[in-house]
């Protein structure tokens, strides 16, 4: 069966690669050429769905969102007032006071990975280090880690062991390019502060805060360090350590790699790829905002999606809530139906979904989040063959629902997108096309799949049989010039259903 995806690759890939290399001075092609590295491993193309979790010291207050560690020091913010009321004045009681309260006493790595597997995830893992300077593994790069402090547990290590036992792939994510203050006396930093900057020279009231302390321990926690203290021993050191100890299959970066000099980005990519080759592993690097060339990475879109089929594999990271990535009291959750629709839409366009969950500080995943994950897993038990190991068809789908451009700046608009059974998404494998309705169509009605219209469908497609996954009902169907006409079965629920269309 012809697939326009591969034709598009031939024409678009060279242009895309040229654009990606415009801002780089080093020869990034050398890394992939020498190691025969493929940034789009087949296992990830097949996997389609992974789970990770934002969980750390910032989970203790369970308030606002994961940027609490920074916002608690800004006097005009609600986080400042909350911290002062519940823990003490931030001028005297800093973020470090929350570390002993992050006990994770109920954390059970096996239970978590069992749940992720039941949800249908093929890869999973932790936020290894967020922007707060607290590492979730047994590290030599900082004393602020989950083995020496807080839980006194190697979270990355325990998850990694369970992932291995479950036959899954491991992802570790890094957000530490943007520590809270970064960096002391850096002459190259802009003199105009923005929302993310918190230097005492820019905000005089920070002068007496713990963030500006010269205490060697506090300097490490708050990123109040020099570039020489940061780039090699902390930023690269953390990555090298996790690669050596835990051998992740995916290393994923949050934004702001543009703050890291290219020589260190190159050093990391070269080391990770060469180490993977030694171990006979297929790995990939995932990044945002063009932070790395695409010959060594795949693109990630935060809380947003592509409009059409992409020639290269890409990823969306999405969270189970409508706002915060970390656990907060009374957080509003998305429905399993909406998340399934997002997964199907992404897969139809050559993408992968990385879904975030938000555990409590004590190490429990709230039952409401568990129920959503299990509901996704139940759907995938029936419909997984239309998702796993598939590739995009010649078109991603059809239907009346539109979505904004795929960019984080529009992520709130994506929350408003609600698909219906009139929205169809296509996937394919071998001689089968799957037409997935993003909702439960009314039983006994006629549904026209316009993707099979004679004028546009690939000439090699000739329908042989149609059935619906999870149903034994005989499906009436008919090929017409306008498309494939199928009768919808009687099924319960409101979630997507998958027509399995066998072709000659």
Structure description:
- The chain is globular, with a radius of gyration of 24 Å.
- With 504 residues, the chain is an alpha/beta fold.
- Mean pLDDT is 91; it is low at 2-20.
- Helices cover 29% and strands 17% of the residues.
- The strands form three sheets. Strands 1-2-3-4-5-6-7-8 form an eight-stranded parallel barrel.
- It is built from 13 helices and 16 strands.
Outline the biggest β-sheet: 8 strands, parallel, barrel
Shape: globular
Strand content: 15-25%
Question: In what order do the strands lie side by side in the largest sheet?
Answer: 1-2-3-4-5-6-7-8
**What are the secondary-structure elements, in order, as H or E?**
HHHEHHHEHEHHEHEEEHEHEHEEEEEEE
Number of DSSP-assigned strands: 16
Spans of at least 5 consecutive residues with low confidence = 2-20
Roughly what percent helix?
25-40%
State the end-to-end distance.
9 Å
For the residues shown, what is the average pLDDT? 91
How many separate helices? 13
Structural category = alpha/beta
| Estimated radius of gyration | 24 Å
